[in-house]
Amino acid sequence: MLLENATVWSGPTAQPTVASLGVQAGVVASCGATRPNDAAGGPRRDLSGHHIVPGFVDAHSHLTVSAWIPEWLDGSEWTNADQALAALRDLSRVRPHAPWLIAMQVDFDLWAGGLPARSHLDDAVSGRPAIIMDGSLHRCWISSAAAEVCGISTLSPGVAGDIERRRGRPTGMLWEAVSAMAFQRALAESAEHLGEAGYDALLQAEAQRHLSVGITACHDPLVPPSLQDAMQRLRRATPLRLSWSRVSEASLLQAPESGEVCPDCGEGPASAKLFMDGAHRCALCLDPAHVMAMAAGAMTQLFGGNTRPMRDLLRYRTVYRDRRFYVPYLRMSVDALTQRLDMLSGQAVRPRIHALGNHAVACSCAALRRLGIRDATLEHLVVVGDSDMDAVAASGALASLQPGFIDHYGAALIERRTMPALHVLPAASLLRRGVPLALSSDNPCGPLNPLHNLRVAVERRLPDGRTVDADEAISIEDAVAAYSIGGHQAVHGQPSVGLTVGAPADFAVLNGHPMNPQTRVVETWIAGTRVWPLTMEAN
After folding, report:
1. Do 377 and 396 form a contact (C-beta atoms < 8 A)?
2. How far is 276 from 355, CA to CA, in rounded Å?
């Protein structure tokens, strides 16, 4: 097959050139100006100026979580608790036999009036187990029946900080590992209720959604041992190149124990996920002058009628020591992380470390340097300083960023005066330091569509026209490379070579330039075969 009259983003840096792409036996057979003997005897197609980009490798997509959204309530548009309770009340009526009632994609920070007493939730669901999951996947609100099913009252004192209380009584709000424990229980029992065929159908539909936006490879970072068989079935059922990282059976947000790691993680190497901080509860280290600037910014917003920055500033704990302010939400000490990394290294398991705040990033790099581990992926790096990025560069780790976060969190980061003392999703600064870069979605916490996320990485613009840390914008060529070649390195530890002769013929065909907001994926190819759409008539 020869695809002619196209702009091909080829090579290890994804440079666009007017060219043809030849495909044979699952690999790229030619890439460049069309010659008379190219694809001799084979079919030729005129792409009428369409763009061919290397297949997007989403190195951080929670496919096994997002697959559930069509099955349950999507609360992304809810602005108060009354809307949530009304929707759950209706759900309880129409799903009388479901073991759990589930709502997803909620942002509790946007609920006018805040969180009501848990008794309101209990009444709405008629005393049944129910969970409302925040879009971050790092906190949830559960009913009393759900708390009883999960044994929340019997958990060890070590996780007490993950159970929110008001006047000494649990509010139903759970955070981090305890939240993920309840969510995992809800999904597992819901999958059992659906049956193997029903659950597999959900996963296959979600894999198809990934293919429809040009994703040729997907890495799910939160797969406990109990999902291993389902992931293997999905691999056999979809052309999507699927890999995953192992987490603990006890909680989706907890690192696996030694006996839980697995040498078979799909298309990628053995991999495990570790957590140095949370999401809203991320680990920060702030200069006093920066804290004063943040406080002044919050006061300015407060006088203008915007109370959110001040509420955010007061909501989370801070500790002052050694002339620095710490937001003390490390999930592990450097020593504990070092021990975990040493255990994984001994079993040839590649680590992926969740580190959102600058203190979590610095501690992660310190542990990696102690052991001399250079093949690792650091994930998120949402707010970091110059010294933290220097540490990332020295560690040899790859940085995996999610530019789509700017859509949801960018305005708040501006209002809190996060910049310029810290950099937000610092793609440009990391590239200048020679840090390997991957871009990904963190679906469903961020938007899945790679084209949208590429444009955000380049423009960093909010709907109101403001830009979020404009100095961290990168070129579209760097963004395409990071979402494909860099994504491959985030999974495998080695970059791919992109669309180069002899490389796997994994690519997406676009009907225009990636920066054009109207451009969409019209074909997705894996190993030289069009896998979406299955027929040209469907396109």
Report:
1. no
2. 5
d(CA 450, CA 447): 8
CATH placement of domain 269-497: 3.20.20.140
What is the distance between the alpha carbons of residues 136 and 154, in angstroms, rounded to a whole number? Answer: 26
Q: What is the 3-state secondary structure (H, E, C) of 137-180?
A: CCEEEECHHHHHHHCHHHCCHHHHHHEEEECCEEEEEEEHHHHH
Sole residue written with tokens 């980009």: 53
104, 424, 441 from 12: Cα distances, Å: 38, 26, 21
Closest CA to 143 of 194, 92, 193: 92
**285 burial class (0-12, 13-18, 19+ CB within 10 angstroms)?**
buried
The topology under which CATH files domain 65-192 is Diaminopimelate Epimerase; Chain A, domain 1 (3.10.310)
Q: What are the Cα distances from residue 167, in Å, to 170, 176, 258, 368, 474?
A: 8, 21, 39, 41, 48
| Torsional sign, CA 52, 54, 60, 61 | positive
Half-sphere exposure of 144 (CA within 13 A, CB side): 11
3-class DSSP assignment, residue 129? coil
Tokens 């495909």 found at: 23
Query: Domain residues of the chain, as ranges?
Result: 2-49+500-538, 65-192, 269-497
State the pairing for strand pair 44-46/163-166. unpaired
Contact at 8 Å (CB) between 64 and 223?
A: yes
Cis peptide before 533 (omega within 30 of 0): yes
Non-local (6+) Cβ contacts of 397 within 8 A are 353, 364, 365, 368, 374, 376, 377, 378, 435
Give kind and range of the element (H or E) at residue 508.
Answer: strand 507-510
pTM exceeding 0.90: yes
Greatest Cα-to-Cα distance within the chain, rounded to the nearest angstrom: 79
Report which residue type is found at 531: V
Give the distance from CA 322 to its chain's centroid.
34
Task: Classify burial at 375, counting beta carbons within 10 Å of its beta carbon; exposed 0-12, middle 13-18, buried 19 or more.
Answer: middle
Which stretches within 195-287 are classed as H helix?
196-212, 228-237
Average pLDDT by stretches of 10, the chain with 539 residues: 97 97 97 65 91 99 99 97 98 98 97 94 98 98 98 91 93 98 98 98 99 99 98 98 98 96 95 98 95 89 85 85 95 98 98 98 99 98 98 99 97 92 98 99 99 99 96 99 99 97 98 98 98 75
pLDDT at 35: 61
The DSSP call for residue 304 is T
The matching CATH number, chosen from 2.130.10.10, 2.40.30.170, 2.40.290.10, 2.30.40.10, for 2-49+500-538 is 2.30.40.10
Strands in 130-134's sheet, in edge-to-edge order, are: 73-74, 101-106, 130-134, 139-142, 169-175, 163-166
